[in-house]
Amino acid sequence: ERIDDARRIPEYVARAFATAMNGRPGPVVLVLPEDMLAQAVPDEPSLQALARVEPVQAGCDPRQAEALGDLLRASQRPLVIAGGSGWTPEGAQALVRFAEQWQLPVANAFRFQDTFDNHHALYAGEVGIGINPKLAARVRESDLIIAFGPRLGEMTTGGYTLMPVPRLPQKLVHIHAGADELNRVYQADLAINAGMQEAVAALERLQAPASVPWAAWAQACHADYEANLQPQALPGDIDMAAIVGLLQKHLPADAVLTNGAGNFASWTHRFFRHHGLAKGHKTQLAPTVGAMGYGVPAGIAAAITTGRIALTMAGDGDFMMNGQELATAVQYGARSIIVLLNNGMFGTIRMHQEREYPNRRAGTALRNPDFAALAQAYGYVGVKIGKTAEFESQLLAALERTQGTLIEIALDPEVITTRGTLSAITQSALNKR
Fold this sequence. Notes:
The protein is α/β, with parallel strands linked by helices and 433 residues long. The protein has three domains: 6-47, no CATH class; 62-228, TPP-binding domain (Rossmann fold, 3-Layer(aba) Sandwich); 240-431, Thiamin diphosphate (ThDP)-binding fold, Pyr/PP domains (Rossmann fold), CATH 3.40.50.970. The chain contains 16 helices and twelve strands. It has helices at 9-21, 34-37, 62-73, 89-102, 133-141, 196-204, 215-228, 240-250, 266-271, 295-306, 316-322, 326-331, 347-356, 371-378, 391-400, 422-431, and strands at 78-82, 106-109, 123-127, 144-148, 171-176, 190-193, 256-259, 284-285, 310-315, 336-342, 381-385, 405-410. The strands form two sheets. A six-stranded parallel sheet has the order 3-2-1-4-5-6, sandwiched between helices. Strands 8-7-9-10-12-11 form a six-stranded parallel sheet, with helices on both faces. The N and C termini lie far apart (51 Å). The model has no long low-confidence stretch (mean pLDDT 96).
């Protein structure tokens, strides 16, 4: 909104915070015209700053909680998909207890992988881009989906094909803090407008049976996830699964991982295991709308505001969207670590080109700068590696430094996804013609 009268600034600011913090949280833009900023405002009590705005969360009706319990008792293959914003460590801990009481397999929604502990025996994986094919099959085979917090957008639903619109073949319970997200795309069998903590607290009070018929199903869901951690053999001198394994080995459990948009992000999405918000910290910051350039400033902000280790996974095209923010990092003493995968192209777009128009590349090749030298120019330490064996020592050195580090990895352009090569995608497209 636009503020034209300086006397209304307290009103607009209070409303902006209320809008940003309630329902589905998100940013608010207030436009400040230059002439308004020059207005003189009398010192009157009515024009003082208003009290701090606190979010208002809807509670969960006990009757709705009981209705969910009835759906669970009638189920044979339930699956929870957890995610979205608004979770606290206490709410995440309650989610763990609820899942354990009912022995429910829990998958995390796209880029909300820190909602539920990835090490837990009930964890089933991430429902998003590059989903484990076995998890996709589990979603389709389930007879009850409890969407706990996510808004069920394009990424989590596989472009609305994994979960067909507007009515699922299985039962759907959708729990969300924003009423406008409920029944927006999918008609839920049970729609619960409640905050995450309020909803899970109500569900914890449900009486779980002594045994459930889906215990073996839950174990199989987790076994599928564990099997998906085994990488495929791919060409080149860089083994990205091994690189992520080294991140897992050496980063502290409360480290914050950030990324923007691109195929490069799929490596940490598939192979990095978050300890979960229930352990006390949010550890993943990533856009759910395909926004390139998010990871670098997010990592810098996380380093400044939390004091924890912040590691950004970036692609070459992704980094160039906001790489200048290294100047901000140095100015404010932020110590982020950036792992930059350089394959000389906009990888995701090139992949789509080969899939739809094989061998007809257009506008996806990049002539990149020397990223390590560029980082040094800003005041970061910049290094390059071309082999997997060179990474561990550089990561350990970065963790010990008091300044930020950029580690540039020369990645074979053939390694386009965690599961296959660019040539294979091209050949598959040609075979269909």
